[in-house]
């Protein structure tokens, strides 16, 4: 019997990329661009092979160096990393990276990304403590109970909620706990299994595309690119509203058709007459369910935490330390309300941190790739050669091709954080050479991987399909037209976005 071919884990893949990066330092010529850095808004410092030069902190300096970036981007802190100065590439002495450098790369990467790494793990701890209260499940159960008989309105409300959760923090596999609540409800109302599947998995996935405050994609990608993650926030928020509204319309249209004619169900057409008596039940479904004051408090804390994070960054220049402290404080507040014992709280919080440890490690590994390339002085060489290829590209064509690249590359690389740190330095630098705003590079990455998330077999679609007993073929027949529509919508947003520099 042949073994089924499986893709390596993201961790193994990232280590392979580190090895490839090290090999490239032996094969490619070494070289570097002169770099421009901001010296506390007092002066620009240009570092080159021959030394450092201080220049006036003015727009005229940027223009003279052919750097098509507004001075405000530096004063507002949107750009924090050194910028490569166009047409200044010079070859240098080779610095090939060997076995020791490969072993050290993940360690150096984690150390260099420690703020993001710890923030991710603290969020894991918060989500574990919050989910342990059962507040989110109780809230959805209460909503489903009170809206019984108004399922069409319930579809609108629930899809919006799951989309918000996908866009705010990247809800993923934890959404499977909602199927036992929603599947019987919608089957009893005359819908098919695709409706609750689309509400939960589809809603979260559509919200994930915009990821307006998702720390595992937007914040990491922006940080890696060297821009403030709020640059492009309102565009992503608009995309979130438009894409969610379109998805709700698309789902309602399908749901209405199934309710009028059950044989129009794709589950019926593709999978046959599936027995609707799945092993999914709602406890006390006919009883008058009420939310306790404590549950309402937990839901308010959850909402307040994410709103506070966004406000803190916008108005008080918060970053990883402040955000991590916020989530830690919210975790402690929930534990106090729940009267969780000290040992139980520590156990649950560390368990949550452990659940996202692999994500944190991948961020470090991906950063290790950049470190190997930089230490071997081939990052700028790759950028130089690539710039000669793309410099004649129309910016609109380039940014759409980047979205398409991320769309397909999301199949082998399912980690959004790993993808961001691995690709952003090079693609972002190429975009700057074409005078494309960094925010649109982040958005093209989000739209590409997010839209693929709806269908990729290496993502969370199969666990969701298994929960509701729907085939992949039936789901693809339902969602593919909307996927193509999202790609067109993403291209439109990117095209408009690059005109607002």
Question: How would you characterize the overall build of this protein?
Answer:
- By secondary structure, this protein is mainly alpha-helical.
- It has three domains: 10-33 and 90-110 and 363-497, no CATH class; 34-88, no CATH class; 115-359, no CATH class.
- It contains 22 helices and six strands.
- The protein has helices at 10-27, 59-64, 71-75, 99-112, 114-132, 135-146, 151-168, 179-188, 194-210, 215-225, 233-260, 266-271, 293-316, 320-338, 342-355, 357-375, 379-390, 395-409, 416-433, 438-453, 461-468, 472-497, and strands at 31-32, 35-39, 43-48, 51-56, 83-84, 90-91.
- The strands form two sheets. The chain has a four-stranded antiparallel sheet with strand order 4-3-2-5, with no helix packed on it. A two-stranded antiparallel ribbon has the order 1-6.
- It is globular, with a radius of gyration of 24 Å.
- Mean pLDDT is 82; it is low at 275-286.
